[in-house]
Amino acid sequence: MGWIDTAKKLPIGGKAYTEHEGCTTSKKLWIYRTPEGVGCFCNKCGYKSFSSTGLRNLQEVLAKHGEETELVVNDVTLPEDFTADVEEFSQEALLWLYKADVRNHLINAYGIGYSKELNRVIIPVYDEHNKLVMWQGRGLSNKQTKYLNTKSTKKQNDFFKSWIQSDTSSDDSYSSVVVVEDALSVIKVGQITKAVGVLGTSLSQKQINYLSKFSLVIFWLDGDRAGVNASTKMVKKLSMVTNTHRIFTKKDPKKLSYAEIEEIINSARHNTITDN
After folding, report:
1. Which residues contact residue 257 at a Cβ distance below 8 angstroms, ignoring those fewer than 6 apart?
2. Can you give the pLDDT at residue 166?
């Protein structure tokens, strides 16, 4: 997050622009500094982020700045009113999860929760030491930003990983991995095979190293222009160290049935043409 260090050097109320790494539509990333922290935005790709340096909690950031697509904080904590009790979820929260066929057993397995104050489904992301490094909040109102990603400045190289670990799975299930964009798609695809979510538009070197262990990496990102551009860049980096393949569908994985997901993945696995 090089823009953060640059923005911190601005005077309070100052604005400037710096190089936008990872954006294929613009080289300019606008940055600014306020009494509460520093932020950035790109008019071309829509990327936004804010790093809090003085506010006490997430709710204050939202109240003062509106809902950002991404917040970067020193220490990630779940919302104060976070609950993992399905009985306390709103009807809208359950409808969004059930519509994707994510039922109670998966909600419990992944520690998915709900925040009434933020009006969001909360999906936590933990590292290999079971430390919370990020959470993704899905807005339940049309007036909200759809996804709110809260990341730690200390650790931003982790994937959101599926938990499928079946002793009865064939070796082929572990020779490939599917890379998707959002947390719910990870959960859906993860019921079929190993899946990880980048929860962003670029890969870090740590993530590349992890994915290079697989003999085939299948990218299944959003089919819009941003998703296609992101997958192109990721494939370019990873194809030098392993086989890669891309899936393009009109619907996100989370919007497909398990049978449809399995059919699409099996087709991609047995497709001898890769992006290498």
Report:
1. 101
2. 39
